[in-house]
Amino acid sequence: MSDGTSAVIREARKDWATEHREMYLASGGAHGHIMDITPVGGRSFATHCLIKYTGRKSGKVFITPLCYADIGGEVVICASKGGADHHPAWYLNLLDSDMVEFQIATQAFRGTWREPQGTERDKVWTFMTDCHPFYADYQKATDRVIPLVMMKALEAIPVFKLSDATGTRQY
User: Per UniProt, what is one GO molecular function of this protein (predicted)?
Assistant: First the structure.
């Protein structure tokens, strides 16, 4: 998939993604954790988390909703960007930090993150594509290896609020 095709997908999903993020934040996580994403190639009972990170260039705080899975006590997210030929901004920003803040439903955490390698990555990728089959299509659409990020909670923190974000995610 070219970056141009990925841009078309992002534009088509932009309003949905913005509405999803705002619903998740406004409800304190009571709504938005489980969503029917069959219209965009997902499952009817798909799980979503929020990640909060600081822009490496802007210094602004961003909150991004992402599909996730839980494997071995770690939360796994995928830096797919819809199969674009370049990594999403949230992933590039995460690379500049040892820690990550994430929210699942009504609970938020500060934790560490890592990228699985080798056979572990293969196992986690298979698990992620079983949970969210569209990731396999995204991988077929690009030459880059789509990164997987595994997050481990260290401490509970207050749930995210819309006012925590000083920047708006660019789709």
Answer: coenzyme F420 binding
In order of start, what are the domains of the chain with their CATH numbers? 3-164 (2.30.110.10)
Entry pTM: 0.88
pLDDT digits (tens, 9 = 90+) for 35-79: 888 877 778 788 999 999 999 999 999 999 999 999 999 999 999
Residues 6+ apart with CB under 8 A from 81: 6, 10, 87, 88, 138
pLDDT at 3: 52
Q: What is the full DSSP assignment across 6-30?
A: HHHHHHHHHHHHHHHHHHHHHTTTS
Q: What's the rounded Cα separation, in Å, for the pair 79 and 147?
A: 5
